[in-house]
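Hi R.,

As promised on Friday, here is the backbone we talked about, encoded as structure tokens. Could you run it through your design pipeline when you get a chance and send me back a sequence?
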């Protein structure tokens, strides 16, 4: 056992020395020229309106596209922005904070020592176009604001190598970007049901109606209405409603997050929740039938998107009438 451990350590040392020996022929001789700069000029952030991200080709890299529309980042409608997820005419919402974090990292001034400029270095460090990861930021009429190629990591895995497309200089620096280029497309989805509205405060809801379309199963439709800081049930005024439970339930609805986007709008919904707001508008959540994986297709009256809710989320959203009544 001790011999095996020693053999592994020696193998790792040999590999590291071999890599270092190879890189001495790749990198420019002498000390690297230190410099501090940002890949993307911060003054150009406001002009950015399209981002294209390419993962590494040798890691089955994906391609993602985001566009800025009405000052919000979305997956474009032509294909939902996702390979294999064609949703014609539907723009998919993106986590705004995640996109802004990427742009912040690109516009952050940091130390990037110059390492090399040869074609041999570009090949050895996977900084050739088509092999590297890539982040392309555009603005205006498709004008490239930044075209950044990201190569392999160094021997210790702490830094990666960079090159701007069309330039020969190679730099190294802290790896802030592969978390974006190599992440799954689903990590960019904003699956909150009310994300497009920027959130709805709970006190904006004045009435909530839960409807079960098949009451033969013993589930009764009911309504809750706000009154003088509390809640009551129209048609069942003799019952005392637990207002704290109602408020917590509304927060669960307004903060609900799906598991994925769906494709099939529930044409024959089995249940629904209607929220009436103080400004006179309404939001209707329509729920389809449960599928074999215990998930439900959900659509909203103010959106053309379809969401898929897991069982535990459904259990929090759909409460039956007795849940809200305080025992006396």
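Update: got your reply. Pasting your designed sequence below so it's all in one thread:
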């Amino acid at each position: 056992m001790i011999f095996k451990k020693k053999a592994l350590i020696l193998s790792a040392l040999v590999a590291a020395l071999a890599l270092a020996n190879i890189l001495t022929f790749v990198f420019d001789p002498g000390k690297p020229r230190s410099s501090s700069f940002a890949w993307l000029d911060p003054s150009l952030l406001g002009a950015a309106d399209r981002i294209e991200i390419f993962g590494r080709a040798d890691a089955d890299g994906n391609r993602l596209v985001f566009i800025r529309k009405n000052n919000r980042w979305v997956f474009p409608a032509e294909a939902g922005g996702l390979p294999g997820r064609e949703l014609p005419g539907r723009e998919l919402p993106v986590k705004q904070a995640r996109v802004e974090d990427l742009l912040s990292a690109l516009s952050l001034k940091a130390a990037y020592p110059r390492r090399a400029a040869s074609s041999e270095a570009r090949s050895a460090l996977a900084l050739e176009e088509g092999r590297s990861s890539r982040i392309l930021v555009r603005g205006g009429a498709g004008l490239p604001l930044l075209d950044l190629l990201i190569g392999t990591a160094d021997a210790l895995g702490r830094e990666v190598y960079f090159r701007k497309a069309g330039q020969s200089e190679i730099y190294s620096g802290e790896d802030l970007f592969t978390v974006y280029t190599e992440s799954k497309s689903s990590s960019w989805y904003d699956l909150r049901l009310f994300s497009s509205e920027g959130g709805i405060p709970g006190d904006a809801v004045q009435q909530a109606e839960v409807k079960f379309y098949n009451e033969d199963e013993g589930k009764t439709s009911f309504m809750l209405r706000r009154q003088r800081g509390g809640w009551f049930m129209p048609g069942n005024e003799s019952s005392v409603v637990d207002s704290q439970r109602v408020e917590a339930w509304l927060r669960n609805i307004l903060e609900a997050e799906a598991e994925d986007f769906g494709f099939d709008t529930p044409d024959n919904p089995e249940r629904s929740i209607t929220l009436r707001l103080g400004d006179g508008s309404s939001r209707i959540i329509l729920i389809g039938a449960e599928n074999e994986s215990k998930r439900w297709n959900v659509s909203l009256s103010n959106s053309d998107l379809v969401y898929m809710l897991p069982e535990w989320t459904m259990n929090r959203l759909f409460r039956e009438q007795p849940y809200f009544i305080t025992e006396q």
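One thing I noticed while checking it: The helical segments are 2-26, 96-106, 119-124, 178-181, 243-254, 311-317.

Thanks again,
M.
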